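Figure S7 source data.
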Amino acid sequence: MHSDGHANRITLAASDQSFECEAGDVMLRSALRAGVAFPYECNVGACGNCKFELIEGEVDVVWPEAPGWTAKDRERRRYLGCQSAPRGDCTIKMRPSAHYAPKHTPRRVTATLVARREITHDIEEFRFELSADMPFEPGQYALLTLPGVKGPRAYSMSNIVNAGSQPRELHFQIRRVANGQGTGVLFDALDIGAHIDIDGPYGMAYLRRDVKRDILCIAGGSGLAPMISIARGVAAEPALGDVKLHFLYGGRTPRDVCGRDMLEALPGWAERLHFQAAVSDVTPDSETVWDGHVGFVHTVAETLFGEALRDMEIYFAGPPAMGAAVQRALVALKVPFEQVHFDQFY
Ligand SMILES: Cc1cc2nc3c(=O)[nH]c(=O)nc-3n(C[C@H](O)[C@H](O)[C@H](O)COP(=O)(O)OP(=O)(O)OC[C@H]3O[C@@H](n4cnc5c(N)ncnc54)[C@H](O)[C@@H]3O)c2cc1C
Ligand code: FES
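Tokens for the predicted flavin-adenine dinucleotide complex:
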């Protein structure tokens, strides 16, 4: 529906694979739409994981200041797949990796904002009704194009797909960022009934339904949504009926803590679904008494679970500093890499 009918053909050098990129689309997402397993992570120009080499043809760089694109990349004709729109047919060098084969084909739909509700002083839930179906796995994210904002913004879904439920909705739990362009529009300028474009699903940190290990979900700040989606997915998945899920939420102060009520509403609460929270800033908050853990989530997780983490499947989401700290702690504890799943929130 976004196409003017024109598409460019992108050929992978030294292979017989090729795919079409429609006008208005970028290299990475058109490849994924065609089922080509193009490596990536953030989709918004930050991580640098989606680089390819341009062998033949020309591209327009959508966001030249993208932090994931360096001067060295420019010299070597290396581009970010998520920021490159082909000007014509192209040949590129990129090594597909089966890990990135999309479980659900990403698609572009129109969405209507149907509800908002406050979760904490700076997190709100935004619910969108979709013009067409968009199946996704718990833990995945979508790209929202917001009026007047350059570049899409990535937000993780907090709901799950219920078989047969209509109308299709996507729920996002979004933290307001000071002076943020996208969150500024979402919180201050988007009225109920407003239409936006949503493209998804994306992301590799989705619930592994075939793994029967107990689960630890670690959410920091804005990382609430994908971990809630995973908890909901576990509660609804018969194949995971014997799996225990521990949810650990980390905030700065007690008024940041959230998520417990969402877990309490699930079947299995207190029997196999458990919630704990930690705050890093111990200064007493005038409104809330704190009797939970104190410290950063990675140290609290280490204290609570210790070596048992090696036998758990671990999902986490949150700001890059938290992600890096959690990763370091898990490496030190020798938790196998394949048991750890995350997409960083740049
Ligand atoms: C995979 C993923 C999942 C995420 N999930 C959530 C979530 O569930 N909840 C949540 O609250 N936050 C989430 N985030 C963070 C979110 O995407 C935004 O970064 C955050 O809301 C701040 O956006 P902003 O526009 O308000 O801030 P800004 O500072 O205005 O924008 C920051 C973001 O926009 C991109 N950007 C800035 N300028 C441009 C430009 N000119 N062209 C293109 N891109 C530009 C940057 O790469 C950066 O990602 C997620 C991020 C990622 C990568
Ligand atoms: S920079 Fe393109 S996926 Fe992160």
